[in-house]
Amino acid sequence: MKRREQKVVGLFGDPVRHSLSPVMHNTAFEALGLPYVYVPFHVEEGDLGDAVMAIRALKLVGVNVTVPHKEKVIPLLDRIDGSALRCGAVNTVVNDGGVLVGYNTDGAGFIDSVGDEGLDLRGIKAVVMGAGGAARAVIAGLLDGGVAEVVLINRTKEKAVALAASLGSNIISVFSLEDGYSRAVSGVGLVVNSLSVPFRREGRWLADLSGAAGALFYDLRYGAMPSDFLDLAKELGSPARDGLGMLLYQGVRAFYLFCGREAPVEVMRKSLEDALSV
Ligand code: ATR
Description:
Layout: E1 7-13, H1 21-32, E2 36-42, H2 48-57, E3 62-65, E4 79-80, H3 82-87, E5 92-96, E6 99-103, H4 106-116, E7 125-129, H5 133-144, E8 149-154, H6 157-167, E9 172-176, E10 190-193, H7 204-209, E11 216-219, H8 229-235, E12 240-241, H9 244-259, H10 265-277
Parallel strand pairs: 1-2, 1-3, 4-6, 7-8, 7-10, 8-9, 10-11, 11-12
Antiparallel strand pairs: 3-5, 5-6
Helix pairs in contact: 1-10, 4-5, 4-9, 9-10
This protein binds 2'-monophosphoadenosine-5'-diphosphate (ATR).
């Protein structure tokens, strides 16, 4: 019997041990009977250059890239897609016959996930808390999705100002935690938490988000990490979602880039839910 050639997709990150991407992609490959395997590689910062060269040498189909390599990988690649240029970060690399092309599926994955919740972004106002790498991808997605206004709130105002300027949009208004932004968040349709630390309701956050009652509250974090963000949403009578949907849909888009096949979305969703429930 002729054996099919095994194709390998990798994940580069530090750490990678807790990533749910391997189970999500391997379950999808299996469900479609594709001869692919998805392998996490623990790549430390100083080894990123060698790891990228190994994509070509080992003829990997491609890799996903996660923290802390999403920005640093850019100069090591041959071509950067517009999606990644806009975000200043790559989360997916495709090996096109030795030419390494960097993409970013995070922003579009976020938009797909919000669409799944039945929210039409066109013409709405969105609040984004936090101005780091995750916020950049989300705001790029929101702008593509046709929002009317983005209210960006961050501890360090200068970072938020720089982010807004680099996205080249005049519909982003910037606030620090000290600024009075309660009026700016009223009438909002979507509130996104992109903070890298658990959201805590003490201080100014709680009071000033009460004007967002009724909006979809979307926390980019997922899993069992404690945060008051989704509890606050429930108290305000707002629908609340964690970041599992974004993880799913960035993976769905990466799957298509890796193997040119539509991803089995529900199979992948279930694999994530199962992995988190054990
Ligand atoms: P990610 O890639 O997950 O977006 P990041 O780029 O390090 O991570 O961004 C972290 C975000 O969480 C930033 O908005 C950061 O605020 P600053 O720009 O002021 O640093 C925010 N953040 C981190 N620790 C925080 C804290 N203790 N209180 C409030 N915001 C915090």
